User: Fold Putative proximal rod protein from Jannaschia donghaensis.
Amino acid sequence: MIEMPDILRLAAGAAAHSANRQGVIAANVANADTPGFRARDMAAFSPDDGFQLRRTDARHMAGQAGRAETFALKQAMADPNGNTVDLEDQVLRGIEASRAHNRAITVYRNNLDILRAALGRR
Assistant:
């Protein structure tokens, strides 16, 4: 079995992290009017996690039963109904996550192109 090069694993892990972060941000936006909802975000991507798949839902098949890497945003001001979602902040966080995802995919794609060229399959 051929093992994936570390740079590809790193890029794939960063892309997956960014996609998951987009999901957390989307949930925040979807609950912008929900009384008592606390805005959440994810910890920064860390390549030290061994690139292991994590199960964030018991219905998922692969990976370890996962620790959720999300946390409540502490500095967020609450509305009178207790909701802490600031849509402007969520848009900025979404843009940041999108850019991180695009960077990771670009690194992944470029490294695949290099491997294909080295194998003469370009």
In short: The helical segments are 6-30, 87-118.
